[in-house]
């Protein structure tokens, strides 16, 4: 027999908008005439007012989805004997309960205590050294989407770490682009769904990109050209709260409707570069749709010229990623929606807003 939670927090009940029972009634459902606080102004709410009620305790979680947008982990930098840059990172796997929607606690497996894990950022050609320690209750690993040797692949037999153990992954940062990392222990779908994934960004080396130097320099974190951009990272994810291999909660950067309740502030005078990664389990496709605007898309971020121009919707399968570039310079200030263009995903948490100012 299913528990009350299985019945109360199911896709069918949520989408039906019917009466919810117990604690779930305070979490999800169609809002009453009195809007919850805080919420977007009238005319700018989520689809037909369907939004989570209440607030997630970010302090208890140990992370804030708004901080995740721009919180780059650049590691510790030193020089190798040959003069090349060595960039080192420390990552710990641990079991941790997190709040993914108001009152909805999920038993996650985390990298560095958060979902998604830290957004690692390096520059093309650097030597990377990642010290991984497993404090969790199951074997874990880190598989990087990039170029490396087989023994650094983070799969069973090549960097899989038992509880209490550690492993050092070492390889060169190649190729440049918008990448990701995730646990590749088995069963794979469980380790990914439980939260073991994160962004892995490699900035291009302008010295290697003579034909596109200006574009390359604009992507290098800390450069004057990069400072003109508003860069953010979003990991599309979802959570199966009753473990029936069907998601009940959808989000970007883990907390349902976080950016609908507190919109992301955008300076109208500066262009936006969005690193988008899909790590949704149990659904074959996720998507991103931008209202009232269009963007250029760089599939996998491995080119300095767009692979798609002037589009407003992009689809990604799990593990697919890319860079979106757009501007609100010609727009009036205001609230602009963006969300998954699967309506079910939007209503169950993957609905967000940009607040354009200036």
Characterise the protein shown here.
With 358 residues, the chain is mostly beta strands. The chain has two domains: 17-60 and 230-357, Cupredoxins -  blue copper proteins (Immunoglobulin-like); 66-212, Cupredoxins -  blue copper proteins (Immunoglobulin-like, Sandwich). 13% of the residues lie in helices and 36% in strands. A hairpin with a 5-residue loop joins strand 2 (76-79) and strand 3 (85-101). Residues 1-9 and 12-48 have low confidence and may be disordered.
In brief:
It contains 9 helices and 21 strands.
Instruction: Give the strand content.
Output: 35-45%
Assign an overall shape.
Answer: globular
The helix fraction, in percent, is: 10-25%
Low-confidence stretches: 1-9, 12-48
The CATH architecture name of the largest domain reads: Sandwich
**Which strands sit side by side, in order, in the main sheet?**
12-11-14-19-16-17
Number of strands: 21
Q: What series of H and E elements makes up the topology?
A: HHHHEEEEEEEEEHEHHEEHEEEEEEEEHE
CATH class placement of the largest domain: Mainly Beta
List the helices and strands and how they pair.
Blueprint: H1 4-8, H2 11-16, H3 58-61, H4 65-68, E1 72-73, E2 76-79, E3 85-101, E4 104-111, E5 119-123, E6 127-134, E7 143-144, E8 166-172, E9 177-182, H5 188-193, E10 197-203, H6 213-219, H7 224-227, E11 230-239, E12 249-252, H8 258-261, E13 264-267, E14 272-278, E15 285-290, E16 295-299, E17 308-311, E18 313-317, E19 321-326, E20 334-339, H9 343-347, E21 351-357
Parallel strand pairs: 1-5, 3-6, 5-10, 11-14, 13-21
Antiparallel strand pairs: 2-3, 3-4, 6-8, 7-9, 9-10, 11-12, 14-19, 15-18, 15-20, 16-17, 16-19, 20-21
């Amino acid at each position: 027999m299913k528990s009350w939670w299985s019945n109360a927090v199911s896709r069918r009940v949520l989408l039906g908008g019917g009466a919810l029972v117990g604690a779930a009634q305070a979490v999800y459902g169609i809002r009453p005439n009195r809007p919850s606080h805080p919420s977007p102004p009238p005319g700018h709410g989520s689809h037909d007012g369907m939004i989570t009620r209440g607030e997630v305790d970010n302090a208890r979680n140990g992370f804030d989805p708004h901080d995740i947008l721009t919180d780059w982990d650049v590691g510790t930098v030193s020089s190798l004997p040959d003069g090349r840059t060595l960039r080192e990172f420390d990552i710990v796997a641990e079991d941790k309960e997190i709040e993914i929607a108001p009152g909805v606690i999920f038993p996650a497996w985390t990298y560095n205590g958060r979902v998604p894990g830290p957004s690692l950022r390096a520059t093309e050609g650097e030597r990377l050294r990642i010290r991984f320690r497993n404090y969790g209750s199951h074997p874990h690993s880190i598989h990087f989407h990039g170029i490396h040797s087989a023994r650094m692949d983070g799969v069973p037999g090549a960097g899989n770490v038992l509880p209490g153990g550690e492993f050092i992954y070492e390889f060169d940062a190649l190729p440049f682009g918008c990448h990701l990392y995730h646990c590749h222990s088995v069963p794979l779908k469980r380790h990914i769904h439980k939260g073991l994934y994160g962004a892995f960004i490699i900035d291009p080396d302008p010295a290697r990109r003579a034909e596109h130097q200006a574009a390359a320099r604009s992507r290098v974190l800390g450069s004057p050209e990069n400072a003109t951009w508003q860069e953010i990272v979003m990991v599309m994810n979802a959570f199966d709260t009753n473990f029936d291999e069907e998601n009940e909660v959808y989000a970007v950067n883990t907390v349902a409707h976080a950016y609908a309740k507190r919109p992301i502030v955008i300076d109208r005078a500066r262009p936006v570069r969005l690193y988008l990664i899909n790590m949704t389990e149990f659904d074959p496709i996720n998507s991103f749709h931008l209202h009232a605007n269009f963007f250029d898309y760089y599939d996998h971020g491995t080119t300095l010229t767009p692979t798609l121009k002037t589009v407003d919707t992009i689809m990604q399968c799990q593990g697919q990623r890319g860079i979106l570039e757009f501007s609100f310079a010609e727009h009036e200030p205001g609230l602009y929606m963006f969300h998954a263009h699967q309506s079910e995903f939007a209503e169950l948490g993957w609905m967000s807003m940009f607040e354009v100012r200036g």
